[in-house]
Backbone:
């Protein structure tokens, strides 16, 4: 559907880029296979963020990950924001562009969080329209990421995996499978994470995410996991990754660590663990 | 359940969660909704903490967190560019009665906002000091200067440069009095410079296309050497035009 001349992300570990790691990354002879940046942090006119991004993009394949487009929002997409994304993609020529199945803008307000939506035929049509618009403006396929859920909507008539599969069928988009999100959502909503993976359209997956979560409980004492990105990836998530990779084959794997960001060697160790998971994938 | 309802309950901690949200087993979502409330409030408060480090020092972390909680509810972001968040904060502070006894805070917040804008401003190559020094004085006085996109001026009846310096760079205790500050970004790191008397007016005139000579007259007794020292240190001058029309 899209003529993708650009090289895709390599099926190797990557990390979410943090400016405090710039020097360590550039000095490390064999750091990681690729980097992901949050699009909105690089939408200024210039300065250090763009200077660093230019230097990194010369050395690493880059994935641009948007956190502010509100693809799951009720209103139309923000045309000015979409134009900024286009400008950034034209400048960086990233190996991948991804966004979330979530909303963050309501009316004129931006709430700076990935908020959930019910899965209905109405929301499906709207999200599909938004994805069509993004892919049309950017002139490239986008990947859509599954959310981490803390609650469910009584109104939902689609399962999340069917909803995502139907979006792929209607729009030709790819998917970003966040394995930690699957584990968090499945635990929080009481379904099997392996069952979710088995129902997931793995052929459409262009990238996977791994991150740490925190544990809490709900009003009834049931486990409530929080997708915090502030610690190591949990052991059951690594196990779920093995289950996923056995079915999907090797994919680009990203380590996300966004709060209490550790020094570079700690992040690099997580990336090495992802490399070991990839090495275990049967040929 | 509507998105409007969801949104309203997000920033109203005492409001019941919207109906139609469950725990996946049909029971009401209850405190599960608080995860989203917490994510939004903590995320925005942390953005304000990062954006206003001096304000946070002046108020103390506890008071700042309480103030940020009110500020973020009064003025949620209006753009997905979080680098721009907090533009309403100085005016909100200026009208915030519980902190009216610290009237300089709003201008300190303006200074911090300007530094953040400068950090992200478009790149521009400054004119080398030697180039400017090589220009005969009469030609410099007749020239027009274009200033870098990062350059901003904050005028204050309070010693905001000294307050900033004390809290960020261990400067001496501020002395009461007005201070005009120019923000510039010589390379990639923005910084504030204390402007000499008349400097702010002169920069405004230069911005509007006035010749150097005219700009210097506008502010009364402008300290020419002091102003150019600031402009050069801040990498503020990016073009010298000697043509008749700008």
Residues:
């Amino acid at each position: 559907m899209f003529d993708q001349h650009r090289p895709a992300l390599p099926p190797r570990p990557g990390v979410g880029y943090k400016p405090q790691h710039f020097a360590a990354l550039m000095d490390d002879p064999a750091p990681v296979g690729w980097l992901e940046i949050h699009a909105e942090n690089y939408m200024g006119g210039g300065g250090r963020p763009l200077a660093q991004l230019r230097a990194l993009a010369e050395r690493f394949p880059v994935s641009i990950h948007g956190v502010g487009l509100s693809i799951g929002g009720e209103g139309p997409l923000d045309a000015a924001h979409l134009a900024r994304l286009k400008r950034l993609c034209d400048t960086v020529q990233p190996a991948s562009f991804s966004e979330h199945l979530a909303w963050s803008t309501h009316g004129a307000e931006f709430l700076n969080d990935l908020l959930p939506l019910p899965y209905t035929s109405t929301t499906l049509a709207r999200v599909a329209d938004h994805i069509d618009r993004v892919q049309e403006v950017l002139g490239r396929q986008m990947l859509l990421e599954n959310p981490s859920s803390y609650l469910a909507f009584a109104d939902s008539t689609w399962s999340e995996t069917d909803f995502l599969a139907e979006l792929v069928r209607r729009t030709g988009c790819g998917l970003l499978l966040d394995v930690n999100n699957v584990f968090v959502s499945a635990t929080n909503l009481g379904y099997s994470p392996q069952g979710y993976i088995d129902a997931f359209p793995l052929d459409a997956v262009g990238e996977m995410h791994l991150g740490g979560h925190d544990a809490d409980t709900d009003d009834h004492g049931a486990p409530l996991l929080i997708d915090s990105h502030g610690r190591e990836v949990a052991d059951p998530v690594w196990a779920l990754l093995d289950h996923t990779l056995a079915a999907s084959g090797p994919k680009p794997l990203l380590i996300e660590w966004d709060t209490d960001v550790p020094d570079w060697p700690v992040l690099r160790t997580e990336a090495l663990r992802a490399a070991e998971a990839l090495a275990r994938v049967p040929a | 359940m509507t998105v409007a309802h969801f949104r309203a309950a997000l920033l109203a901690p005492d409001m019941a969660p919207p109906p139609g949200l469950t725990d996946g087993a049909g029971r009401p979502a209850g405190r599960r909704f608080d995860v989203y409330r917490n994510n939004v409030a903590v995320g925005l408060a942390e953005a304000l903490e990062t954006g206003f480090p001096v304000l946070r020092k002046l108020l103390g972390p506890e008071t700042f967190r309480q103030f940020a909680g009110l500020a973020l509810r009064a003025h949620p972001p209006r753009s997905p560019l979080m680098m721009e968040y907090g533009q309403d904060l100085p005016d909100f502070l200026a009208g915030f009665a519980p902190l009216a006894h610290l009237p300089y805070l709003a201008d300190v917040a303006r200074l911090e906002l300007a530094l953040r804008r400068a950090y992200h401003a478009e790149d521009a190559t400054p004119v080398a000091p030697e180039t400017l020094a090589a220009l005969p004085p009469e030609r410099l006085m007749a020239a027009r200067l274009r200033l870098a996109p990062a350059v901003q001026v904050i005028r204050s009846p309070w010693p905001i440069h000294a307050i900033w310096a004390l809290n960020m760079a261990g400067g001496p205790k501020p002395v009461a009095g007005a201070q005009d500050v120019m923000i510039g970004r010589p390379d990639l790191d923005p910084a504030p410079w204390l402007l000499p008397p008349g400097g702010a007016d002169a920069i405004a005139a230069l911005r509007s296309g006035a010749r150097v000579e005219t700009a210097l007259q506008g502010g009364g007794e402008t300290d020419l050497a002091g102003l150019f020292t600031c402009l050069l240190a801040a990498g503020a001058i990016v073009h010298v035009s000697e043509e008749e029309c700008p």
Observations:
- Chain A has one domain: 13-279.
